[in-house]
Design goal:
Elements lengths: L8 E4 L1 H8 L5 H9 L1 E5 H13 L7 H14 L5 E2 L3 H17 L4 H20 L3 E3 L2 H10 L5 E3 L1
Parallel strand pairs: 1-2, 1-4, 2-3, 4-5
Helix pairs in contact: 3-4, 5-6, 6-7
Length: about 150
């Protein structure tokens, strides 16, 4: 998909936030994110918060990481925060359960797949593609919910 010269709307997957904070985004992906109209999914913010809460606060980078994400979270306008509704939760559970069964996933993989389905379906309902590094998971989800879209980087 050639997106040069176009301002696109995107929902960022959790891995985009993490890679951007670590300086690991490809320059073209970074430029895409910088120029996009960004929407944010509460599921991604929860995944980030889980990581911060689970990290050792004695680690030398913990305070900077916490402060970076606190500033990011505070900067998100309420009008651009997307949250799964009851129907999305149910559909995401069905999709994640079906894929866990048909793909032989381990129990520990189900939560990540559920979160990816929640992100994908929430973005889909808003009519916005998800920017993600997780091609395999989002491709499986899209096969069961073809109305949504994602951009793999």
């Amino acid at each position: 998909m050639d997106l040069r010269g176009r301002r696109v709307a995107l929902v960022l997957d959790t891995n985009v936030y993490i890679n951007a904070a670590a300086g690991r985004l490809d320059p073209q992906v970074g430029a895409l994110v910088e120029n996009a109209l960004l929407f944010h999914c509460s599921v991604c913010l929860s995944e980030i918060a889980l990581g911060i809460g689970n990290a050792d606060p004695r680690h030398q980078t913990w305070t900077a990481t916490r402060d970076h994400y606190a500033e990011l979270f505070a900067s998100i306008p309420a009008s651009r925060l997307l949250t799964p509704d009851d129907g999305i939760w149910t559909e995401a559970g069905l999709i994640a359960g079906t894929l866990a069964r048909t793909q032989g996933l381990q129990p520990f993989q189900r939560k990540d797949l559920l979160n990816d389905a929640l992100i994908y379906l929430t973005a889909s309902k808003a009519g916005v593609p998800v920017l993600t590094q997780n091609r395999v998971e989002f491709d499986f989800i899209q096969q069961l919910a073809p109305e949504g879209s994602f951009i793999h980087y």
